[in-house]
Write a structure and sequence with these properties.
This protein folds into 2 domains: 3-117 and 289-311, ATPase, nucleotide binding domain (Nucleotidyltransferase, domain 5); 130-285, ATPase, nucleotide binding domain (Nucleotidyltransferase, domain 5, 2-Layer Sandwich), CATH 3.30.420. The protein is 38% helix and 21% strand. The two termini are 17 Å apart. A 5-stranded mixed beta sheet has the order 3-2-1-4-8, sandwiched between helices. The chain has 9 helices and 13 strands. Residues 306-314 have low confidence and may be disordered. Helix 1 (39-61) packs parallel to helix 2 (96-103), helix 6 (208-216) crosses helix 7 (220-244) and helix 7 crosses helix 8.
Length: 314
């Protein structure tokens, strides 16, 4: 059976799959990234994991994978196949595509940015399916974005397209590691909400999920923290939709797990802010933590001609 290798590399764990031509997940596996052992060990782990997946495909399906897709965090040069920089993995200028192609016996390999790859999956087979223009924004430790246009995701001239987390929403506000002050992710990421709620409730172990629960129970302090995050997020999203005019806004990541505790006030906050702009659909992501791996599979199928990638379904 013809299949591809899909690999999603995160800061702490790697998710992988063998994906059939119809999008069927033929095999799934997970393992730690092992970043505590250093960047060289991380790269070796990726290559070894991919080789194991190739061997499994040969044993189980009688032939090696036809292609591979890999999603990684940080700055990625997709055209050159280079993992340029990832602070949480400690690597710089890793020619990952070339290394994987060699390790996998010469099959074509696609390298993608983790958020853009997840956005590709959400756009084609997830919450944005059928939308010609979408913006996918996962709210995690930080905030990034994927700009979807007619079934593909725009990387930008230098690979920085979609960095909505570094739109300044509070000029002169909290310093951001990027060098600016008042960036969106300093106010509306899961990490930012966790920090604000821990300070407000006096429990250093409290996090964004705890804040959402407290909002649901009517805690006034939690509602204040939550609304500040919602307002900042709405400001950033309206700036983005003014520039990009998406048909659908897809919100994912850990903060989106709060469900309507997030989406009800966020829809209202965005609605209040739009003037001439067309209000897009604002929906939760559909694929959860499988989006990156599914997107990597789509990248791999895009490299070969066995199927129309727009028809691949999860």
């Amino acid at each position: 059976m013809r299949h591809v290798i899909a690999l999603d590399v995160g800061g702490t764990g790697m998710k992988a799959a063998l994906v059939g031509a119809d999008g069927e997940l033929l095999h799934q596996a997970r393992r730690p990234t092992g970043r505590e052992r250093g960047p060289d060990a991380v790269v070796a782990g990726i290559l070894g994991f991919a080789a194991e997946l190739r061997a499994h495909g040969i044993r189980r399906h009688g032939e090696p994978a036809s292609a591979a897709g890999v999603a990684v965090p940080g700055i990625v040069d997709e055209a050159e196949g280079t993992a340029v920089y990832a602070a949480n993995l400690g690597w710089r200028d890793v020619p990952l595509r070339a290394l994987l192609t060699e390790r996998l016996g010469g099959v074509p390999v696609a390298l993608g940015h983790d958020v853009r790859t997840g956005g590709l999956a959400e756009g084609r087979i997830g919450a944005g399916r059928g939308a010609d223009r979408f913006l996918f924004v996962p709210l995690g430790t930080g905030i990034a974005g994927a700009i979807g246009i007619d079934g593909r995701v725009e990387a930008g001239a230098h690979g920085f397209a979609g960095e909505i987390g570094h739109i300044v929403v509070r000029p002169g506000g909290a310093p951001c590691p990027c060098g600016q002050h008042g960036c969106l992710e300093r106010y509306a990421s899961a990490a930012a909400v966790s920090e604000a709620w821990a300070a407000a409730c006096g429990d250093p172990g409290a996090d964004a999920a705890d804040c959402a629960k407290a909002v649901g129970s009517g805690d006034v302090r939690a509602r204040e923290v939550w609304q500040e995050a919602v307002d900042a997020l709405a400001d950033g999203l309206v700036t983005a939709l003014t520039l990009l005019d998406p048909r659908t806004l897809i919100i994912g990541g850990g903060l989106a797990e709060a469900g309507e505790t997030l989406f009800t006030p966020l829809r209202e906050a965005v609605r209040r802010r739009v003037t001439f702009q067309k209000l897009p659909s604002l929906v939760p992501a559909a694929l959860g933590d499988t989006a990156g791996c599914l997107g990597a599979g789509l990248l791999a199928w895009d490299l070969i001609d066995t199927t129309d990638p727009a028809e691949v379904t999860a």
